[in-house]
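Friendly challenge for the regulars: who can give me the structure tokens for this chain first? No prize, just bragging rights.
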Amino acid sequence: MSVELGHFALVLALALALVQSVVPFAGARLGSLSLMRVGEPVAITGFALVAAAFAALTLAYVQSDFSVLNVWENSHSAKPLLFKVTGTWGNHEGSMLLWVLILALFGAMVAAFGRNLPPTLRANVLAVQGLIASAFLLFILLTSNPFIRLQPAPMEGRDLNPILQDVGLAVHPPLLYLGYVGFSISFSFAVAALIDGRVDAAWARWVRPWTLAAWAFLTGGIAMGSYWAYYELGWGGFWFWDPVENASFMPWLSGTALLHSAIVMEKRSALKIWTVLLAILTFSLSLLGTFLVRSGVLTSVHAFASDPTRGVFILAILVFFIGGALALFAIRAAALAPGGLFHPISREGALVLNNLLLTTAAATVLVGTLYPLVIEAFSGDKISVGEPFFNLTFVPLFLPLLVAVPFGPMLAWKRGDLLAAAQRLQIAFVAAVIAGLLAFFMIDREAGFAAVGIALALWLLLGALTDLAMKSGVGKVTPAAAWRRFTGLPMSIFGTFLAHAGLGMTVLGVVCVTALETERILIMEPGQSTDISGYTLRFDGLSPFTGPNYTEDQAAFTIFSGGVVVDEIISSKRLYTARGMPTTEAGIKTMGFSQLYVSIGDEAAGGGLVVRIWWKPLVTLIWLGALVMMAGGTVSLFDRRLRVGAPTRRRPARSGERTA
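First reply, four minutes later:
Bragging rights claimed.
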């Protein structure tokens, strides 16, 4: 019965989404405050209905209700409870329901917490959100209904894809969707502003917290997805330039540009047209990612669907929203008031350079991702664009960005002094150069890339620290006064520090593991040992193990350092009995920020076991840096200046008029 109620709740949610997309918009056009206010309770009620539908599907998974087609295809009674719950969104239909749930959540949050917005703007934002929700609810009900019944009901399910039966699935998709869908608010604000014809500093301040929240969630989602692929697929890599990975990376790049552009618009009333365009493009890239994952045009471990009908439907949604928003932008952009002027050497100029490099980098990733699909569509030839292309196009664009990042906060608004900024950063520069030289001469003279990369990473970290020290007055005032200044700094200053420092940590991890990792592939027999990066690894043998819904052969290894036992690693080959699908479970031992990674293959013909071993120096900094960036975005959200209206210019006092 709960399944039917869930289906009915979705139908009601669609009806309310249609009301939300029409009535507030009509009220804004007619100037009717009562009609505009309809959007708020409708958005909150619509979210409650979608949440009820999602709860009904989750309950069906928890109860192993195999009379539901979606549950039968993606669950099993022997599956652990956690994976029954996460299996709700471990498939196309359930993940789309999660997508719409988060979309409805953001709409409800605007309705609940957007009371300081002008009524017309709030009504238009909710109307655009309602229109997006209507499209995707219609998509679910017509092509991806998760509540279809089976008659008669099977006794047992087919089980979830084994590689998705992991705790990472509990974290990665929700975070990723909170980022993807969160940018819909920025999109709705942009379209609403274009409809109103009003884009100003107040608009930038209203849109920035939503963009910041979406960016922070997307950062965490990408990092979690990278780590999941790293340890679950047993391949030892953290990024493959997979098209679906790229689909999440592109909105992250453009979203980062949008954040910085919104700062310029808020502070200096500049880059108005560019900021609105970025808000449209960022969500457009999120929609493009949804299309790539669910249209069947890609084959990937990340892809959910392969039904062309669904792909055509999503493509229609993509064309309608992207085409409609860009058409509205083309009509309205010329009427928008130009922004403030600034000197190229200024903080605004640094942020413009940041925007140019980020958007160009996103464009190169877009070309590399879509080019094989275009070639296949027109010629039928299958080609692949992989790591060499992205290394030759993306990296040269990203390197100057990394060099420029510490300069931005050091420059003044409107007109800055580049020499003065360089002088403030000279200690960070000297320390970074020394670190690079030490890496070159003491670690590996053949790894020049590693030396440059380590220097850049230290440049980012120390540059962020220098900015924090300068704003605290370190070296200019007494330590007590510096501490008072430090504790009184706005939260956004700490957020910027964490974001830039986290980027430096990630760069350091990527450089070290890419240039300095050690790999061994060999056949080992029980009792045999091998050395790698100062450690000795002894293969102790295989032993069988039975899990709740799988069997596996576990390979035990003992780690020695200087003849002393350090720890042990268990790596295994697992077989999920319901699907008959094997997986490799890598054994990973974290030592400081580095990891020893062991993956086993098949037994060799002459005896022994194929073993692949990596020593990955500082690899955990890749994901720890992303978490620090995510924390930076979260900290910035607590800045009280994001919760009040943008400052307005005071009108000049008239002659004879008293001023306070």
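Strands lie at 518-524, 529-532, 535-546, 550-561, 564-576, 581-585, 587-591, 594-603, 609-616. The CA atoms of residues 202 and 550 lie 57 Å apart. Your move, everyone else.
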